[in-house]
Known about the structure:
- By secondary structure, the protein is α+β, with helices and mostly antiparallel strands.
- Helices cover 19% and strands 29% of the residues.
- The protein is built from eight helices and 21 strands.
- The chain has helices at residues 9-13, 31-35, 102-105, 124-149, 210-224, 236-243, 246-252, 301-304; strands at 48-49, 54-59, 85-90, 92-101, 153-159, 162-167, 177-180, 188-189, 231-234, 259-264, 278-282, 285-292, 296-297, 312-313, 319-323, 331-335, 337-340, 349-352, 355-361, 366-379, 386-389.
- A seven-stranded mixed sheet has the order 8-21-15-9-12-11-10.
- It is globular.
Amino acid sequence: MANTQAVTFSEMMQSPVITRIVNRISTPLSLFQQFFGRMSGNNSTATDSVKGRDAGWDIFDVTRQFSGARAPETGPRRVVKKPIGHVSAQLMRSHESIVIYDGEVYKTRPLGGQIGSTVDLRGQAHVQRQVKFMTQRFRNQREWMYSRMLRGGFNILPSGDNYGLIEYDASPTDGSIPISYQIPADNLDRLDLGTGADILDDWGTVSNDILGQCYAINKAMTRMHGRPLRHIWVNSSTFVNIQNNTGLQDIGGQAYRVFDSLSRRGNKSAEGIPDAGFDVVFRAMPLWTFHVYDGVLSVDGATDGIEVAENTLLIPDDYALFLPDPDDTWEGLIDGSEVIAENVLATGREVQGFANWATRIIDPPGFELKFLDNYLPVLYVPTCVAYGNVGA
Protein backbone atom coordinates (compact mmCIF):
# COMPACT_ATOMS: atom_id res chain seq x y z
CA MET A 1 0.00 0.00 0.00
CA ALA A 2 1.29 3.46 -0.90
CA ASN A 3 2.23 5.69 2.03
CA THR A 4 0.71 9.18 1.62
CA GLN A 5 1.80 10.51 5.03
CA ALA A 6 3.16 14.06 4.94
CA VAL A 7 6.94 14.34 5.21
CA THR A 8 9.34 17.20 5.73
CA PHE A 9 11.33 18.68 2.83
CA SER A 10 14.50 17.15 4.24
CA GLU A 11 12.89 13.70 4.57
CA MET A 12 11.57 13.90 1.04
CA MET A 13 15.03 14.61 -0.33
CA GLN A 14 16.46 11.63 1.59
CA SER A 15 13.90 9.09 0.32
CA PRO A 16 15.92 6.03 -0.88
CA VAL A 17 14.10 5.25 -4.15
CA ILE A 18 12.39 7.93 -6.22
CA THR A 19 10.69 7.03 -9.49
CA ARG A 20 8.93 10.24 -10.52
CA ILE A 21 7.10 13.41 -9.49
CA VAL A 22 3.37 12.75 -9.14
CA ASN A 23 0.80 15.49 -9.75
CA ARG A 24 -2.64 14.44 -8.50
CA ILE A 25 -4.55 17.38 -10.03
CA SER A 26 -4.69 18.41 -13.67
CA THR A 27 -3.77 22.06 -14.22
CA PRO A 28 -6.94 24.15 -14.82
CA LEU A 29 -7.36 25.19 -18.45
CA SER A 30 -8.60 28.80 -18.09
CA LEU A 31 -11.19 28.37 -20.85
CA PHE A 32 -13.01 31.65 -20.23
CA GLN A 33 -9.75 33.55 -20.68
CA GLN A 34 -9.05 31.63 -23.88
CA PHE A 35 -12.59 32.24 -25.17
CA PHE A 36 -12.20 35.99 -24.74
CA GLY A 37 -8.69 35.96 -26.20
CA ARG A 38 -6.93 36.98 -22.99
CA MET A 39 -4.24 34.30 -22.95
CA SER A 40 -0.66 34.83 -24.10
CA GLY A 41 1.90 32.44 -22.67
CA ASN A 42 1.66 32.58 -18.89
CA ASN A 43 0.04 35.99 -18.86
CA SER A 44 -3.10 37.54 -20.30
CA THR A 45 -3.28 40.00 -23.13
CA ALA A 46 -5.01 43.15 -21.99
CA THR A 47 -7.47 45.10 -24.07
CA ASP A 48 -6.36 48.29 -22.30
CA SER A 49 -3.54 49.29 -19.99
CA VAL A 50 -3.63 52.09 -17.45
CA LYS A 51 -1.13 53.66 -15.07
CA GLY A 52 -2.00 52.79 -11.50
CA ARG A 53 -5.23 51.04 -10.51
CA ASP A 54 -7.91 53.57 -11.43
CA ALA A 55 -9.74 53.10 -14.72
CA GLY A 56 -12.81 54.45 -16.45
CA TRP A 57 -14.60 54.71 -19.75
CA ASP A 58 -17.15 57.03 -21.34
CA ILE A 59 -20.47 55.87 -22.77
CA PHE A 60 -21.90 57.36 -25.95
CA ASP A 61 -24.56 55.16 -27.51
CA VAL A 62 -25.60 55.26 -31.14
CA THR A 63 -29.29 55.85 -31.71
CA ARG A 64 -32.22 53.88 -33.07
CA GLN A 65 -34.32 57.03 -33.36
CA PHE A 66 -35.03 58.64 -36.71
CA SER A 67 -35.61 62.24 -37.67
CA GLY A 68 -39.10 63.71 -37.69
CA ALA A 69 -40.97 65.59 -40.41
CA ARG A 70 -41.46 69.38 -40.48
CA ALA A 71 -43.91 71.66 -42.23
CA PRO A 72 -42.70 73.63 -45.28
CA GLU A 73 -41.01 76.97 -44.62
CA THR A 74 -40.33 76.22 -40.96
CA GLY A 75 -37.08 76.09 -39.12
CA PRO A 76 -35.40 72.97 -37.82
CA ARG A 77 -36.80 70.91 -35.03
CA ARG A 78 -34.47 71.25 -32.07
CA VAL A 79 -33.30 67.88 -30.74
CA VAL A 80 -31.99 67.23 -27.23
CA LYS A 81 -28.30 66.39 -27.27
CA LYS A 82 -27.31 62.79 -26.71
CA PRO A 83 -26.34 62.28 -23.05
CA ILE A 84 -22.84 61.03 -22.27
CA GLY A 85 -22.22 58.56 -19.46
CA HIS A 86 -19.10 57.56 -17.54
CA VAL A 87 -18.10 54.49 -15.54
CA SER A 88 -15.27 54.43 -12.99
CA ALA A 89 -13.58 51.31 -11.66
CA GLN A 90 -10.69 50.33 -9.44
CA LEU A 91 -8.60 47.34 -10.50
CA MET A 92 -8.09 44.17 -8.48
CA ARG A 93 -4.70 43.94 -6.74
CA SER A 94 -3.21 40.57 -5.79
CA HIS A 95 0.20 40.30 -4.14
CA GLU A 96 1.67 37.05 -2.75
CA SER A 97 5.07 35.55 -2.01
CA ILE A 98 6.77 32.36 -0.87
CA VAL A 99 10.15 31.96 0.82
CA ILE A 100 12.73 29.38 -0.24
CA TYR A 101 15.73 29.07 2.07
CA ASP A 102 19.11 28.14 0.64
CA GLY A 103 19.48 25.38 3.23
CA GLU A 104 16.38 23.63 1.92
CA VAL A 105 17.59 23.28 -1.63
CA TYR A 106 21.40 23.62 -1.54
CA LYS A 107 23.14 20.53 -2.97
CA THR A 108 19.97 18.45 -3.06
CA ARG A 109 18.88 16.01 -5.72
CA PRO A 110 16.53 17.42 -8.37
CA LEU A 111 12.84 16.80 -7.73
CA GLY A 112 12.01 13.38 -9.17
CA GLY A 113 15.68 12.38 -9.33
CA GLN A 114 17.54 9.64 -7.45
CA ILE A 115 19.94 10.09 -4.55
CA GLY A 116 23.41 10.04 -6.05
CA SER A 117 22.18 11.50 -9.33
CA THR A 118 23.08 14.96 -10.57
CA VAL A 119 23.08 17.47 -7.73
CA ASP A 120 21.01 20.63 -8.17
CA LEU A 121 23.45 23.03 -6.49
CA ARG A 122 21.11 26.00 -6.25
CA GLY A 123 17.75 24.23 -6.30
CA GLN A 124 16.76 25.67 -9.67
CA ALA A 125 14.33 22.84 -10.45
CA HIS A 126 12.54 23.28 -7.13
CA VAL A 127 12.34 27.06 -7.58
CA GLN A 128 10.96 26.69 -11.10
CA ARG A 129 8.17 24.45 -9.88
CA GLN A 130 7.28 26.89 -7.10
CA VAL A 131 7.16 29.73 -9.64
CA LYS A 132 4.80 27.68 -11.84
CA PHE A 133 2.66 26.91 -8.79
CA MET A 134 2.34 30.57 -7.85
CA THR A 135 1.78 31.73 -11.42
CA GLN A 136 -1.06 29.23 -11.74
CA ARG A 137 -2.72 30.68 -8.63
CA PHE A 138 -2.84 34.09 -10.30
CA ARG A 139 -4.12 32.64 -13.58
CA ASN A 140 -6.79 30.75 -11.63
CA GLN A 141 -7.89 33.95 -9.94
CA ARG A 142 -8.36 35.62 -13.32
CA GLU A 143 -10.45 32.66 -14.48
CA TRP A 144 -12.59 32.87 -11.34
CA MET A 145 -13.03 36.60 -11.90
CA TYR A 146 -14.20 36.02 -15.46
CA SER A 147 -16.68 33.39 -14.30
CA ARG A 148 -18.15 35.76 -11.69
CA MET A 149 -18.22 38.69 -14.09
CA LEU A 150 -20.46 36.55 -16.30
CA ARG A 151 -22.65 35.66 -13.32
CA GLY A 152 -23.17 39.23 -12.13
CA GLY A 153 -20.36 39.97 -9.68
CA PHE A 154 -18.64 38.91 -6.48
CA ASN A 155 -18.06 40.11 -2.92
CA ILE A 156 -14.83 41.15 -1.22
CA LEU A 157 -14.58 40.07 2.42
CA PRO A 158 -11.86 41.87 4.42
CA SER A 159 -9.81 39.71 6.79
CA GLY A 160 -6.97 41.82 8.14
CA ASP A 161 -4.85 42.84 5.16
CA ASN A 162 -6.32 40.04 3.06
CA TYR A 163 -9.42 40.45 0.94
CA GLY A 164 -11.24 37.20 0.29
CA LEU A 165 -13.24 36.71 -2.90
CA ILE A 166 -16.64 35.14 -2.29
CA GLU A 167 -19.96 34.69 -4.06
CA TYR A 168 -22.00 37.75 -4.97
CA ASP A 169 -24.57 39.00 -2.47
CA ALA A 170 -26.15 42.40 -3.11
CA SER A 171 -27.19 42.75 0.56
CA PRO A 172 -24.48 41.00 2.61
CA THR A 173 -24.66 40.52 6.36
CA ASP A 174 -21.09 39.25 6.79
CA GLY A 175 -19.31 42.59 6.32
CA SER A 176 -18.34 41.85 2.74
CA ILE A 177 -18.42 44.45 -0.02
CA PRO A 178 -20.54 43.66 -3.12
CA ILE A 179 -18.91 44.30 -6.50
CA SER A 180 -21.63 44.36 -9.14
CA TYR A 181 -21.09 44.21 -12.89
CA GLN A 182 -24.47 45.91 -13.35
CA ILE A 183 -26.05 43.04 -15.28
CA PRO A 184 -29.79 43.90 -15.25
CA ALA A 185 -32.10 41.74 -13.16
CA ASP A 186 -33.97 40.92 -16.38
CA ASN A 187 -30.77 39.22 -17.63
CA LEU A 188 -30.56 36.87 -14.64
CA ASP A 189 -32.48 33.84 -13.40
CA ARG A 190 -35.35 33.04 -15.82
CA LEU A 191 -34.33 35.79 -18.27
CA ASP A 192 -37.12 38.26 -18.76
CA LEU A 193 -34.75 40.27 -21.03
CA GLY A 194 -37.23 43.13 -21.10
CA THR A 195 -40.01 41.06 -22.67
CA GLY A 196 -42.31 41.22 -19.65
CA ALA A 197 -42.32 37.45 -19.10
CA ASP A 198 -39.83 34.73 -18.17
CA ILE A 199 -38.23 33.07 -21.19
CA LEU A 200 -36.56 30.08 -19.55
CA ASP A 201 -38.10 27.06 -17.86
CA ASP A 202 -36.83 23.64 -16.77
CA TRP A 203 -34.55 22.11 -19.41
CA GLY A 204 -34.71 18.84 -17.48
CA THR A 205 -38.29 18.35 -18.65
CA VAL A 206 -37.81 16.68 -22.04
CA SER A 207 -40.95 18.19 -23.58
CA ASN A 208 -40.09 21.83 -22.85
CA ASP A 209 -39.29 24.00 -25.86
CA ILE A 210 -35.53 24.65 -25.55
CA LEU A 211 -35.30 25.65 -29.21
CA GLY A 212 -38.05 28.24 -28.85
CA GLN A 213 -36.44 29.67 -25.72
CA CYS A 214 -33.08 30.11 -27.46
CA TYR A 215 -34.75 31.88 -30.40
CA ALA A 216 -36.58 34.13 -27.92
CA ILE A 217 -33.27 35.01 -26.23
CA ASN A 218 -31.70 35.73 -29.63
CA LYS A 219 -34.63 38.03 -30.50
CA ALA A 220 -34.45 39.81 -27.13
CA MET A 221 -30.67 40.33 -27.42
CA THR A 222 -31.09 41.83 -30.87
CA ARG A 223 -33.61 44.27 -29.42
CA MET A 224 -31.53 45.10 -26.33
CA HIS A 225 -28.11 45.71 -27.88
CA GLY A 226 -28.11 44.45 -31.47
CA ARG A 227 -25.63 41.60 -31.01
CA PRO A 228 -27.05 38.16 -31.83
CA LEU A 229 -26.78 35.17 -29.53
CA ARG A 230 -23.90 32.92 -30.62
CA HIS A 231 -22.52 31.01 -27.61
CA ILE A 232 -24.16 29.05 -24.78
CA TRP A 233 -22.04 27.75 -21.89
CA VAL A 234 -23.26 24.85 -19.71
CA ASN A 235 -21.76 22.01 -17.72
CA SER A 236 -22.16 18.36 -18.71
CA SER A 237 -25.20 17.75 -16.46
CA THR A 238 -27.14 20.48 -18.22
CA PHE A 239 -25.87 19.24 -21.60
CA VAL A 240 -27.44 15.82 -20.95
CA ASN A 241 -30.82 17.52 -20.42
CA ILE A 242 -30.48 19.34 -23.74
CA GLN A 243 -29.49 16.17 -25.56
CA ASN A 244 -32.55 14.32 -24.24
CA ASN A 245 -35.00 17.05 -25.30
CA THR A 246 -37.74 15.62 -27.51
CA GLY A 247 -38.13 18.82 -29.51
CA LEU A 248 -34.50 18.70 -30.60
CA GLN A 249 -34.87 15.01 -31.42
CA ASP A 250 -37.97 15.64 -33.54
CA ILE A 251 -36.29 18.36 -35.59
CA GLY A 252 -32.85 16.79 -35.71
CA GLY A 253 -34.24 13.33 -36.46
CA GLN A 254 -34.51 10.56 -33.89
CA ALA A 255 -32.90 8.08 -36.27
CA TYR A 256 -29.79 10.24 -36.29
CA ARG A 257 -27.71 11.95 -33.65
CA VAL A 258 -29.29 15.16 -32.34
CA PHE A 259 -26.08 17.14 -32.78
CA ASP A 260 -24.50 18.24 -36.04
CA SER A 261 -21.01 18.28 -34.56
CA LEU A 262 -19.48 17.33 -31.22
CA SER A 263 -15.78 18.05 -30.99
CA ARG A 264 -13.12 18.02 -28.35
CA ARG A 265 -11.50 21.39 -28.01
CA GLY A 266 -8.00 20.03 -28.39
CA ASN A 267 -6.80 21.86 -25.28
CA LYS A 268 -4.45 20.06 -22.92
CA SER A 269 -3.28 20.86 -19.42
CA ALA A 270 0.37 21.51 -18.63
CA GLU A 271 0.62 17.78 -17.90
CA GLY A 272 -0.76 16.85 -21.32
CA ILE A 273 -4.17 15.78 -19.98
CA PRO A 274 -6.93 16.48 -22.54
CA ASP A 275 -9.75 18.91 -21.78
CA ALA A 276 -12.74 17.00 -20.40
CA GLY A 277 -15.17 19.41 -22.06
CA PHE A 278 -16.29 19.78 -25.66
CA ASP A 279 -18.13 22.04 -28.10
CA VAL A 280 -21.46 21.05 -29.66
CA VAL A 281 -23.63 22.33 -32.51
CA PHE A 282 -27.10 20.75 -32.51
CA ARG A 283 -28.84 19.92 -35.79
CA ALA A 284 -31.94 21.80 -34.65
CA MET A 285 -29.89 24.83 -33.50
CA PRO A 286 -27.07 25.37 -36.02
CA LEU A 287 -26.71 29.06 -35.21
CA TRP A 288 -25.37 28.51 -31.70
CA THR A 289 -22.33 26.73 -30.27
CA PHE A 290 -22.75 25.04 -26.90
CA HIS A 291 -19.58 24.99 -24.80
CA VAL A 292 -19.53 22.25 -22.15
CA TYR A 293 -17.23 23.32 -19.29
CA ASP A 294 -16.86 21.32 -16.07
CA GLY A 295 -13.97 23.36 -14.70
CA VAL A 296 -13.57 23.79 -10.94
CA LEU A 297 -11.52 26.08 -8.70
CA SER A 298 -10.97 26.24 -4.95
CA VAL A 299 -9.87 28.89 -2.48
CA ASP A 300 -7.54 28.01 0.38
CA GLY A 301 -9.59 29.02 3.41
CA ALA A 302 -6.64 28.58 5.77
CA THR A 303 -4.69 31.20 3.80
CA ASP A 304 -7.49 33.65 3.16
CA GLY A 305 -9.20 33.28 6.54
CA ILE A 306 -12.50 32.54 4.79
CA GLU A 307 -14.51 29.35 4.41
CA VAL A 308 -15.02 28.60 0.73
CA ALA A 309 -16.37 25.43 -0.84
CA GLU A 310 -13.74 23.16 -2.34
CA ASN A 311 -13.77 22.33 -6.05
CA THR A 312 -16.55 24.77 -6.92
CA LEU A 313 -17.93 24.47 -10.46
CA LEU A 314 -17.35 27.59 -12.55
CA ILE A 315 -20.69 26.89 -14.26
CA PRO A 316 -23.16 25.37 -11.75
CA ASP A 317 -25.68 22.65 -12.52
CA ASP A 318 -28.91 23.91 -14.09
CA TYR A 319 -27.45 27.22 -15.25
CA ALA A 320 -26.48 28.48 -18.70
CA LEU A 321 -24.55 31.48 -19.98
CA PHE A 322 -25.87 33.11 -23.16
CA LEU A 323 -23.33 35.33 -24.95
CA PRO A 324 -22.71 37.04 -28.30
CA ASP A 325 -19.42 36.59 -30.12
CA PRO A 326 -16.63 37.97 -27.92
CA ASP A 327 -15.18 41.31 -28.94
CA ASP A 328 -13.82 44.33 -27.13
CA THR A 329 -16.84 46.50 -27.88
CA TRP A 330 -18.76 44.86 -25.02
CA GLU A 331 -16.14 43.16 -22.83
CA GLY A 332 -12.49 43.61 -22.03
CA LEU A 333 -9.59 43.31 -19.64
CA ILE A 334 -7.73 46.24 -18.11
CA ASP A 335 -4.20 45.87 -16.76
CA GLY A 336 -2.92 48.34 -14.18
CA SER A 337 0.58 49.20 -13.02
CA GLU A 338 2.56 49.55 -9.81
CA VAL A 339 6.10 50.56 -8.84
CA ILE A 340 8.22 47.82 -7.26
CA ALA A 341 11.75 47.68 -5.82
CA GLU A 342 13.56 44.37 -6.17
CA ASN A 343 16.13 45.19 -3.48
CA VAL A 344 17.01 47.98 -1.04
CA LEU A 345 19.35 49.64 -3.54
CA ALA A 346 16.92 49.56 -6.46
CA THR A 347 15.45 52.87 -7.58
CA GLY A 348 12.16 51.16 -8.39
CA ARG A 349 10.53 50.28 -11.68
CA GLU A 350 6.96 50.24 -12.92
CA VAL A 351 5.47 46.87 -13.82
CA GLN A 352 2.28 46.38 -15.82
CA GLY A 353 -0.32 43.71 -15.07
CA PHE A 354 1.18 40.46 -13.82
CA ALA A 355 4.82 40.50 -12.67
CA ASN A 356 7.11 38.36 -10.54
CA TRP A 357 10.58 38.83 -9.09
CA ALA A 358 12.88 37.55 -6.33
CA THR A 359 14.19 39.41 -3.30
CA ARG A 360 17.27 38.19 -1.42
CA ILE A 361 16.84 37.57 2.32
CA ILE A 362 19.44 36.78 5.02
CA ASP A 363 19.57 35.12 8.46
CA PRO A 364 18.86 32.50 7.24
CA PRO A 365 19.80 33.12 3.60
CA GLY A 366 17.27 32.51 0.88
CA PHE A 367 14.95 34.14 -1.60
CA GLU A 368 11.44 35.52 -1.31
CA LEU A 369 9.64 34.93 -4.59
CA LYS A 370 7.10 37.73 -5.08
CA PHE A 371 4.13 37.88 -7.44
CA LEU A 372 1.91 40.85 -8.25
CA ASP A 373 -1.12 41.41 -10.47
CA ASN A 374 -3.21 44.53 -11.10
CA TYR A 375 -6.12 43.88 -13.44
CA LEU A 376 -9.88 43.74 -13.89
CA PRO A 377 -12.14 42.00 -16.43
CA VAL A 378 -14.83 44.49 -17.41
CA LEU A 379 -18.26 44.53 -19.03
CA TYR A 380 -18.67 47.62 -21.17
CA VAL A 381 -22.19 46.48 -22.18
CA PRO A 382 -23.65 44.46 -19.28
CA THR A 383 -26.82 43.60 -21.22
CA CYS A 384 -24.72 41.38 -23.51
CA VAL A 385 -24.57 38.76 -20.73
CA ALA A 386 -27.54 36.58 -19.84
CA TYR A 387 -27.04 34.11 -16.96
CA GLY A 388 -30.07 31.88 -16.81
CA ASN A 389 -31.57 29.30 -14.48
CA VAL A 390 -32.63 26.28 -16.56
CA GLY A 391 -33.40 24.01 -13.60
CA ALA A 392 -36.71 22.93 -12.07
